Amino acid sequence: MQDLDDGILTVSIKETERLTGLGRNTIFDLLADGRLRSAKIGARRLIIAASIREMIKKAEVVPFSETKRENRRQKWRLGKSAPKSNAR
Predict the structure, then answer these.
(1) Do the beta carbons of residue 20 and residue 52 sit within 8 Å?
(2) What is the DSSP letter of 60?
(3) pTM of the full predicted structure?
(4) What is the pLDDT of residues 10-34, one digit of tens each?
């Protein structure tokens, strides 16, 4: 992970957003379900850098061709399902 070397112990929420590309709400959801760990020091909530590395290593890698969006595109291209119309 760029800029997250082994010497760094904690990072801010904002830095976690930048490093992972995740939004603030997603980061707090990951904290709530235990996939990320944090430390509260004074008024600051700091994310444990090792937990970011662990989360990324454990993340499921799914090729784009297996995503729901791509599957819908394939079906549409093959004519199996027409795009929904907004006409009433």
Answers:
(1) yes
(2) P
(3) 0.65
(4) 999 999 999 999 999 999 999 999 9
